[in-house]
Amino acid sequence: MFTNGSKKAVWLATKRIAVKSRLYGHRAAANRDTQSIVQISRSNIYRFGDPNFAVPVFRDVEWTVDEGESWAVIGTGSKQKTALLQTLLGHLRITPPPPLPGGLFPFLSDPPRDPHTCVALVSFAHRSRAAGGAFYDYTSRYGAVREEDRITLRESMFGEYDFLNIQPKGGKVKTPIEIAQDEVKKGIFEDLTSRLGLSSLLDLPLIALSNGQTRRARIVKAILSEPELLVLDEPLTGLDVNTRPILLNVLQSLHESRSPRIIMGLRMQDPVPDWISHVALVTGETILTGIKDEIMSKHAHHRAKEAEHSMASTTQSYLQPGLDHGKPVVDMQNVNISYGPRKVLKNINWTIREGQRWHLQGANGSGKTTLLSLLTGDHPQSYTQRSGSNLELFSRPRQRIPTPLLCSLIGVVSPELANAYPRRAGVSVFDVVGTGFDGGFVPGGKDGVGKGLEGTLSDEVRQWRVKRVREVLNGLGPTSWETETSSFAAGDELLAPNEVFSKRDFLDLSAGEQSIVLLMRALVSHPQLVLLDEVWSGMDENMVRAARRYLCEGGVGSDQAVVVISHWEEEVPWTVKDGLRRFKLDDGEGQEL
Predict the structure, then answer these.
(1) What is the CATH architecture assignment of 70-89+116-309?
(2) 306 forms bridges with which residues in the sheet?
(3) Domain ranges of the chain
(4) What DSSP element (H or E) covers 161?
(5) Which residue numbers delimit the ABC transporter domain (predicted)?
(6) What are the φ and ψ backbone dihedral angles of 35, each rounded to 5 degrees?
């Protein structure tokens, strides 16, 4: 029981929190309503270290975000969109700089607050340079099935939040005011996790969660840090069709209550939420800002022409409908995956044959990632199916296929692989594509095209591999998706754009460029099974169009099976007329549609 003095302290603390809380309720300061959130006036934007006479990243930028407006940054190229969002974090130089005292963020000037603590970015692009160059084994999480190895969502994402514990660690006793503060924060946490469908997942191991579920958790964690401005780069990536409107409704209510203010980064092909009032359209080094309908209508005519060209160029397909006679690549009969009493996959029956094209569907948490780990042979339970169940890959039980051989037979693109792939200085695009032959992550062998299963390659095989890398680079390189490309002089040699691209460090590429390079890696060996999980992540419109065209026009052959895992039906390169088949998971149960 609290004493009268304690009760008064608790009441005062709760009152202060209720007023201070940016998550529920408007701020009362009238002068803040007249201040801009973001202010850039007729400036060029440069990389740090570049002189003013260098080519700027953006030229003649005029961008003002006023209180009450709802903004989305839309990029025709992923690199440019990300650069503008990074400008808000102070990662690029604005010249001339926004004038003081307001600076880039006038609303933080009265009272003065530090933008480094008040502005936060959550990006769903792949790992950045800062994440380190080492590879981490993303498949090891499937081994964490012992009770002592389990790390729950609550422990992983929210373990540092003291308010989730009645008493803090270390035996320190909380004061009544601290307890009251914790109760308010806990209420906010419980409300957000409930609205975003995370409450029932908090005490599940991370292994049991989908990419979309962990992404929602990352957004909750960012909101709990109480930024004044939260920048979300591609927040709809990886979310199923039912979850997208739920998240957007939550973001709208938070933005309207300034708790926090939200700026979203979207790809050109992403739907723009109805509640967005203004957009910054980023095209090359130009930024067009203004009211959403006006800006988008100016771009609509050009986009319609591109879409028409895209449909015309992707309607042709080398796939013959109804290929049921190919050899089985994957054969699942009554396959189950469970963690203790919790069943993740239930009696899955699915046969994938050479030449077939499949669209794997299912809501976040339905079991798609787990099923994918069976197709790749990564999951430990792929070795240990019980009597009455059967899993065969390339007509052999998983335990009878050496992992190096399996890696050479399967080409994979997935969020897990993209996040885990090493970003090391000196590793070129050519090197990364070359690792696709053996399925490894470190360039090896003469010419960087691997050593093969026997540890050495004949000259004939090595030369074929080098030629094959060039073919894929020419099919999916910059000349296929950049509107403007230029050659580069290296000594007396004039290098073509795709050759220049092949020599660039993978580390220095944008998220979209890294995604398309990892697609090249998955296709380069002409594997029998190609798995494309969220393959378009980070790619801009032109890249997606080029990749779709390449896949449909011979990038994969009639002797290869392809499974596309995507929430966006329109992003699957093939249609039912092309012989596309659909397999849907619902709460761990699967069936062909």
Answers:
(1) 3-Layer(aba) Sandwich (3.40)
(2) none
(3) 70-89+116-309, 328-462+504-592
(4) none
(5) 40-309, 330-593
(6) -90, 145
pTM of the model: 0.82
Q: Encoding tokens for residue 114?
A: 């530090």
**Which of 473, 564, 554 shows the shortest CA–CA distance to 516?**
473
The SS3 call for residue 567 is coil
Specify the amino acid at residue 351: T
d(CA 240, CA 262): 21
**Contact yes or no for 71/65 (Cβ under 8 A):** yes
Is residue 98 within 8 A of residue 40, CB to CB? The reply is yes
**CA proximity to 340, closest of 144, 563, 558, 95:** 144
What does the alpha-carbon distance between residue 50 and residue 91 come to, in Å, rounded to a whole number? 13
Per residue in 350-381, pLDDT (tens digit) is 999 999 999 999 988 888 988 998 888 888 88
CA-based nearest residue to 528, from 404, 367, 356, 368: 356
Same fold, 70-89+116-309 and 328-462+504-592: yes
Token code pair at residue 341: 């009493």
What pLDDT digit, counting tens, does each position of 37-76 carry? Answer: 999 999 999 999 999 999 999 999 999 999 999 999 998 7
DSSP class of 458: -
What homologous superfamily is domain 328-462+504-592 in, according to CATH?
A: P-loop containing nucleotide triphosphate hydrolases (3.40.50.300)
Q: Contact 539/565 with Cβ under 8 angstroms?
A: no
Residue 377 region by backbone torsions, left for phi larger than 0, else alpha for psi between -120 and 50, else beta = left
Question: What amino acid occupies position 394?
Answer: F
The single-letter code of the amino acid at 156 is S
Residue labelled with tokens 């970015």? 121
Q: What CA–CA distance (Å, rounded) separates 59 from 42? A: 8
